[in-house]
Structure formats: C-alpha cells, structure tokens
Amino acid sequence: MPWVLLAFAGLLEIVWAVAMKQAAGFTRLWPTMIMGVSMIGSFGLLALAMRDLPLGTAYTIWTGIGAVGAFTVGILFLGEALTPMRMIAAVLIVTGLVVMKLA
C-alpha cells in the first residue's frame, strides 16, 4: 500500500507542477487553486507513504515521478523542446528510480 500512495503522490506532484506553470505567477485563480489542492494532496500522500518507506527511497521516487512526469507533460502538451540532452537526463532519472526501487 505505501507504494500505491507514493505513486499517487507523484502523480499529484505532476498536477501541481503543471498547474503552477499555468497559474502564471499566481495571477490565474483556477490553476492556482488546483496547484494548492494537489500540492497538499501530494505532500499528504507522501507523508503517509513515508510511514512505511525509507525517507531517501520515498523522496527520490516522489521527486523522480514528478520530474519525469512534468518533463513529459511539457513536451506533449506545452510545446517544450525534446532535445537529446534532455532525453538523456530523463532516462538517467528513470534509471535512478529503478535502481532505488530495487535497492
């Protein structure tokens, strides 16, 4: 169960990161509200997952899901560039997540 909580916490991290971008410096109400709610949910689920998972593992997985997820959303929906170096960086993050999970 803690891994499921952690996965949902990571997904909510993607939501709040994208909403933060859409909030344009907190000048748009609804994206700002979505960001706040999803941020609280993400932190709450992370805290619950950390009751059973090691700090380093939980935090690394959570930030990795958020980083790679936000990277992917940026490319697929926000028109951000997919360069070879950015792709290598994302692959390295995912590789690190897999190794962390196996450890």
TrEMBL record:
A GO molecular-function descriptor: transmembrane transporter activity
* Topology versus the membrane: Multi-pass membrane protein
Which terms in the GO cellular component ontology are assigned? plasma membrane
Would you say which domain of life the source belongs to?
Bacteria
Major subcellular location class: membrane
Fetch the InterPro entries from UniProt.
EmrE-like, Small_drug/metabolite_transptr, Small_multidrug_res
Q: What is this protein called?
A: Guanidinium exporter
Which organism's genome codes for this protein? Answer: Ruegeria halocynthiae
